[in-house]
Amino acid sequence: MDDLLKYYSRKDVQKAIFQVSIDREIAVRFGDKGYGRRPDILQFETDIHELAKQGATSFNISEERWKNPFYALKPGMTKKQLDEIRIGWDLIIDLDGEFEYCKIAAYLIIEALKFHNICSYSIKFSGNRGFHIAVPFETFPSTLNKVETKLLFPESAKIIVSYLKSMIKEHLFEMIREKNPSFKNQDPFTLVDIDPIVISSRHMFRAPYSYHEKSGLISIPIHEKDILNFNKEKAKIENVNTDIKFLDLEKIKEKESSQLIIQAYDSYHKIKKFDEDKETKILMQKKDFQQPQTALNEKYFPPCIKTGLAGMSDGKKRFLFILMNFLRNVGYDYDEIKNLVLEWNKRNKEPLRENYIMSQLNWNKRQKQNILPQNCPKDKENLGNNADNIYVDLGICNPDNLCKLIKNPVNYTIRKSKLKLHN
């Protein structure tokens, strides 16, 4: 802690963090004690050192920029209320997963931005396994289809990230194969997570030059030319200098991201809103997938869902997405899903923020079409052959005898409930 306090006493570090925090909400973490109050802001550069004296270990900042965030932001605000005080939002692309493959993905995302004639991007090491790539709000058009762009959050950010993700997918696969010839999975995003679902209002990301508690490293901005050869040694606290700005608003080209957002929306409208594979469509038509009218008892849940519900240390956001879709398909209404999800969150080692959970619940509620959770692994006898399966990756796949007969956790629950009725 002495090294960290000394680090945050540096004037250049204070200035770098403060400059990017202007008009943003911040969340201060105090080590194992968790986060401080929200909303919060930095009023002066010296606040950083003063908070560090009180035990602050890291600083997180909002993707959105606000009018008077300290006074205007309140828990439980509606989208309309948030829209009224939002100044703008920066596109933050969060890459996480296998470090070496995250470097490749970051390189390809930058290439995709350059393809759209964008040069005002920033990139930084997240401080642990991945990278954050940022595109300033000022580079987007002020309106899109006669709607103010500042009002199009988080949907525009999700659409752009999904578009860029699809754009780099094949190249990412080929570059991973070059690095690792044994990789035979056709989906490279099992190794690199670029999940647009996690983008939500009041979503936070680690501030540049902030400490990362798990790794003990600093989240440092880097030059584009250094991405593929980036070494974490540079992020050690004793090696950090602040010569690279992150989201440098003095060096941007206004509206240069117009082509990107227009093409992303064009692509979005040309494809189905939800990309379901043929196998899932067939399963949805089967009798076993007729949605129950009332919530099925938890005792009929499959082992993977029960294991996840017991509490998780990693992968909580991914499991939350699975859980919401699963519950919706086994007869749970919004209030029932909300209650179960909030109870589950209390059992997690480090609970997700309630405002994040509520934003995901509200997003799920607005979807007119039910989405099945991902299918079970195909080879249930040897889970090691299913490295691409989310349940295996999360460490919650513990198949029983019934699991061997089904293809989806929803199918398991409906079939098991019917078996009980007939016994």
Provide an overview of this structure.
With 423 residues, the chain is of the alpha+beta class. The protein has 15 helices and eleven strands. The chain has helices at residues 2-8, 11-21, 47-53, 69-72, 79-85, 99-115, 155-179, 258-270, 278-285, 303-309, 316-329, 334-347, 354-366, 390-393, 409-422, and strands spanning 26-29, 58-62, 64-66, 86-89, 91-97, 122-125, 131-135, 143-144, 147-148, 192-193, 204-206. The chain has a four-stranded antiparallel beta sheet with strand order 6-7-5-10, covered by helices on one side. It is globular, with a radius of gyration of 22 Å. The relative contact order is 0.11. Residues 272-279 have low confidence and may be disordered.
Question: Would you summarize the structure shown here?
Answer:
The protein has 15 helices and eleven strands. By secondary structure, the chain is of the alpha+beta class. The longest helix has 25 residues, at 155-179.
Report how far the terminal alpha carbons are from each other.
61 Å
Q: Class by helix and strand content?
A: alpha+beta
Overall pLDDT score: 89
Query: Which consecutive residue ranges, at least 5 long each, have pLDDT under 50?
Result: 272-279
Q: Over the alpha carbons, how many angstroms does the gyration radius reach?
A: 22 Å
Strand order, sheet with most strands: 6-7-5-10
Strand content: 5-15%
Number of helices: 15
- What global shape is seen? globular
Number of strands: 11
Helix content: 25-40%
What kind of sheet is the major sheet? 4 strands, antiparallel
Order of helices and strands: HHEHEEHHEEHEEEEHEEHHHHHHHH
